[in-house]
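Data availability (excerpt). The following record was deposited with the supplementary files.
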Amino acid sequence: MDRDYYEVLGVQKGSSLDEVKKAYHKQALRHHPDKNKAPGAEAKFKTIAEAYDVLSDPKKKDIYDRFGKEGLRADGAGGPGFHVDPHALFDQFFGGRSPFGGGGHGGFQFTHGGGGSPMFGGGGARMGGGGPGAFHQAFGGPLPPGMMGGGGGGAPPTAAAPPKHKDPPVVHELAVTLEEVFSGCTKRMKISRRRLNADQRSWRTEDKILEVQIKRGWKEGTRITFEREGDETSPHSIPADVVFVVKDKPHAVFRRDGADIVYAARVSLREALGCAGSSVAVSVPTLDGRTVSVTTTTGGNDDVVVRPGARRRVAGEGLPLSKSPGRRGDLVVEFQVDFPEKLSESAKEAISQALLPC
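Predicted structure:
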């Protein structure tokens, strides 16, 4: 459901955080699958969670307001593997307590039998909104024998299970070359993680391949998040997110300056002072394998010299802009002057005379 997030929650752009929270509270209760059985309620519930996740986070909200959903993906707030677990967000928002019943998670609550203690049979337990699955969600296991019918026994838990906490994210650097940023690419990253076995008491180690889509022009520091792909540390925790942070690899020819790329062109002192003619021409490589000629005027009637650090720009030969991949930065040619290690006395005298004030 690719709708505007403000429209999804029914709030105006510029609404306060309290207004966003109130809107989520109302919409989430109305469309929760335990309460709303209409077709499409689950998808609507997920979209509501996505909208709240973005509009309640100042950073994400600012990016969304300026660049929309594509901006979130390009900035690393979204992208491959990005999603919001609507049920986990709902539980966190309501503090792990179901709003559909008086008791625990999923609307499960206990009533008391004649003996003053919780009873499973004959109406001793009832499902507020979650049905049999609510017990599994709340207490981490299937319904005990006898719970589905009128008989059975055994003491149930006396309180709802505490809400799960989420482990901190696992962050990895993802090294990319300037050529990969220029063209875009797919990186296949292998991770190892611990996962709980079915007995909920022992662990296994498993490998998984995560595919990272590197978009053209992505900046260093861009974050790509794969939710809940990290270790399962306990039955009571939510697996950590795995986060990759883009890091530029050093390049043999260029250095990066935002969307611009800088090339160091070396010229001799003779060329820099205009002794070789009226201009200095250098051949400069590009990221896509071509060569461009860059000429700077020296000597002649202009009496111009090439100073160390002087720059010339070649427009549109840099990296794609992360927010507008159809546009590109510049290729910046930075001149470096090679000074001789030694001079003859006559050369020194000639240079001294040339540099004397008029």
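Summary of structural features: The chain has nine helices and 15 strands.
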